[in-house]
Write a structure and sequence with these properties.
The protein is built from 13 helices and 7 strands. By secondary structure, it is an alpha/beta fold. The protein folds into 3 domains: 44 residues; 205 residues, P-loop containing nucleotide triphosphate hydrolases (Rossmann fold), CATH 3.40.50; 58 residues, no CATH class. A 7-stranded parallel sheet has the order 3-2-4-1-5-6-7, sandwiched between helices. It binds guanosine-5'-triphosphate and magnesium ion. Magnesium ion binds next to helix 4 and helix 5.
Length: 322
């Protein structure tokens, strides 16, 4: 159903006050690149960049959603408001339902202090991490104190998604076959905090030891990455995890936060620009473009120079349009 676009004033009045309907609308607008997108961005400008964005990633079945669930409970007990974004890079067609279902939403469904949203790869031509970053900003502007981004840690797109977070929690669990599941995906390198979940299972200590060794090898940083053992289903160890998260957040001053925001915006704009340019290049259907390509075929021009010439051509044509 197409709804009438709302203007920036609507979002300023509703979204910034934390209205859930406006928040849901804003996220849909961004997801579907609808007409309101610009209005949303105008409204939230200068109002994001306050929340603690926590990334939770790790092997399938390691207990990420259960841990997020336990974290939600603890943060809510302190009276903080939370946004949760469940990102599913592997399901282009689900529309985000699958991972969202797995989050134990039933516990928090009626709680107005928790807002949960799923994002799937489908439709995000400019990149899933870009879409996620924008959704996080909107939740931030709507007054969420904590925003948790959960994604399955199996590939490069997850690593990109995790770049959005200020604190990255990598979850491992004993008995998932390959003990150090995270190493393969190159995800250990991005961990700020390592969690061995399912600490109630027999091999947890061994997994923690292996992880400690692997983290020592993988990390190029001087500061040691803490390893926390949790049992998500009984919330054991979750308070300790919270302590590490709080300590990290306390270390982010205003300057560091705005540096991070700028860095993030660079990536968003770079992604958007590449997306635009590639659209323009695909529309390129001119004699001039054929001339460039023929020159390459005849060996008169190398591909790199041809690429630059085509990009220039596309840019010129598009800027003459308006
Ligand atoms: N014994 C034990 N089981 C747990 C623990 N945490 C989660 N589980 C179980 O592990 C299974 C997977 O948990 P999820 O929270 O769905 O794991 P996930 O990492 O989110 O899974 P995906 O989203 O599919 O990647 C469920 O059956 C949980 O009940 C724990 O601390 N101890
Ligand atoms: Mg999950």
């Amino acid at each position: 159903m197409r709804r009438k676009p709302r203007d920036a004033d609507y979002y300023r009045q509703q979204l910034l006050q934390g209205d859930r309907v406006a928040l849901a609308r804003a996220i849909s607008a961004i997801e579907n690149e609808r007409a309101d997108t610009r209005a949303v961005y105008q409204a939230i400008a200068g109002h994001a960049n306050r929340a603690h964005v926590i990334g939770v990633t790790g092997a399938p079945g390691s207990g990420k959603s259960s841990l997020v669930n336990a974290l939600i409970q603890e943060f809510r007990a302190r009276g903080q408001k939370l946004g949760v974004v469940a990102v599913d890079p592997s399901s282009p067609f689900s529309g985000g339902a699958i991972l969202g279902d797995r989050i134990r939403m039933s516990d928090h469904g009626a709680d107005p202090g928790v807002f949960i949203r799923s994002l799937a790869a489908r439709g995000h031509l400019g990149g899933l991490s870009r879409a996620t970053a924008r959704v996080v900003d909107v939740m931030d502007a709507a007054g969420m104190d904590i925003i948790i981004v959960e994604t399955v840690g199996t590939g490069q797109s997850e690593v990109e998604v995790m770049e959005i977070a200020q604190s990255v929690v990598v979850v491992c669990a004993p008995g998932l076959g390959d003990e150090i599941q995270a190493v393969k995906a190159g995800i250990l390198e991005i961990a700020d905090i390592l969690v061995v979940n399912k600490a109630d299972l027999p091999d947890a200590e061994r997994t923690a030891r292996q992880l400690r060794d692997a983290a020592g090898l993988a990390s190029s940083r001087d500061d040691k990455v803490p390893i926390v053992k949790t049992t998500a289903i009984s919330s054991e160890g979750v308070a300790e995890l919270m302590q590490y998260l709080d300590d990290r957040f306390a270390g982010f001053d205003e300057a560091r936060r705005s540096d991070a925001a700028l860095e993030r915006m660079r990536k968003i704009v770079t992604g958007a620009a590449s997306h635009r340019l590639s659209e323009w290049l695909q529309r390129l259907d001119t004699d001039e473009f054929d001339t460039i390509c023929n020159s390459v075929l005849r060996g008169e021009l190398d591909i790199d120079d041809a690429a630059i010439a085509s990009a220039r051509l596309a840019l010129t044509i598009e800027s003459e349009k308006d």
